[in-house]
Amino acid sequence: MDQSVNHDIKSRRIQRLLVLAALMALVLVSVAIVPSWDDSDGAGDASDGSETFTARSGDVEIKYRIVGPSSVSVFGEEDNPAVDKNVSYVKIPETVTYKGTEYTVSSIDAFAFNSCKVEEVVIPDTVNSIGKSAFGYCFFLSTIEIPDSIVRIEEATFVDCGLRSFTIPDGVTYIGDYAFMGCMFDTISLPSSVEYIGYNSFGTCLCLQSIEFSEGLTSMDTYAFAGCTMLESVKLPEGLKAIPDGAFSNCGSLSSVTISSTVEYIGAMAFLNDTSLKSVFIPPTVVEIDISAFMSSGLETVYVTMNTECNHAFDNVLVVYYDENEDVPDDEADGMDTAVPLAVLAAVIAAIAVGFVLGKQD
User: Could you tell me which of 244, 141, 248 has the C-alpha nearest to residue 184?
Assistant: First the structure.
């Protein structure tokens, strides 16, 4: 074959390959830039394949995900919330209509409003579940009410929110890890329906001054109220079996603690660094107080029975032992009156012992 013809064939092949490569590149680019939401009609798909759409509530566009034949969930993802991040007020409707079908708004997805600048949210009674971190890091959120249909407050639902007041509705049984960590309310009331409080649920709520517990709480996870520096008093409910590790640690303003008669165990570092705590009465039901439970606190006097195992729980504290079969001190003053004679008696016994030893030496 003529050499020039051969060269021409090779050139054409190269041109075809270049054209094919360019076409493939265009296809890939077009796929890459297709948005997850179709702005023309608001339709799209969630990562689980369920159909999504947007609908207007007042002046706000809200994204939804179809979760059943007649129900939808407010839809958001960690970096793609349900509304524009700069919206300040959101009213979630009870129902929305899409393609001629009316849907009930039954839930709010995890991360739905995460890191938004929203200040107030209205949630309808039709909503029966709210996903984890749904309102996490909404620093400007000051007003929200959740309906009585909610029975679980999930992990980090309101973590680091600006909430200055909040009512936990009757019916809530479970409060998840980090649920209210870093919130700004000064008081919180737990209804009798609450059975469980998770890890660090109310940790570092720096404005929290008082907690109202109700009977019904049976379990609390570690560090549940750690770092609540303004918390002044705690009265634990009957039914609670254990105060877990670090539960009220670093609560520098805590000056009064009432431990219920059902508590059997006080965990390690439970009241560590509570420098305002001066005295505490340990009920006879407590079998064990774990290591450093009251270390580095302001504790001066502890009232406890001989049957309670104290594993290096205190430092530089006067321990007053009482007989669980006798009347316990009515107040701290009565306890101090008992403690002084015991201390004097110990000193007298020590002096007698020293005198006896010296006399033997003579």
Answer: 141
Query: What amino acid is encoded at 10 in this protein?
Result: K
In whole angstroms, give the CA distance from residue 305 to residue 30: 76
pLDDT of residue 48: 75
The answer to whether 192 and 168 are in contact (CB under 8 A) is: no
Residue 246, amino acid: G
Helical (H) or strand (E) element with 252: none
The structure's pTM equals: 0.79
Quick one: which of 138, 167, 139, 137 has its CA closest to 153? Answer: 167
Among 204-213, 242-251, 343-352, name the one with the lowest average pLDDT: 343-352
Model pLDDT for residues 307-320, shown as the tens digit of each residue: 999 999 999 999 99
Q: Which residues have a Cβ under 8 Å from the Cβ of 261 and sit 6 or more positions away?
A: 238, 283, 285
Torsion sign (Cα): 183, 184, 188, 191: negative
> Based on C-alpha coordinates, what's the Rg of the chain?
32
Task: Output the CA–CA distances (angstroms, integers) from residue 146 to 20, 136, 152, 172, 268, in the order listed.
Answer: 57, 15, 11, 10, 35
Which H or E run includes 16? helix 3-32
DSSP string over 328-355: PPSSHHHHHHHHHHHHHHHHHHHHHHHH
Q: Which two tokens stand for residue 181?
A: 């960590």
Domain with CATH 3.80.10.10 in the chain: 41-150, 232-353
Round to whole Å and give the CA distance between 253 and 231. 6
Task: Specify the CATH number of the domain 232-353.
Answer: 3.80.10.10
Contact residues for 58 (Cβ-Cβ < 8 A; gap 6+): 89, 91
* CATH classification code of 41-150: 3.80.10.10
- For 27, 37, 69, 138, 227, the CA distances from 64, given in Å and listed in that order, are 30, 11, 14, 20, 37
Report the largest interatomic distance among the alpha carbons of the chain, rounded to a whole angstrom: 132
Q: Are 162 and 142 in contact (CB under 8 A)?
A: yes
Q: What percent of the chain has pLDDT over 70?
A: 77
What are φ and ψ of residue 173, in 5° steps? -110, -20
Q: Which of 136, 139, 112, 132 is nearest to 123 (CA)?
A: 112
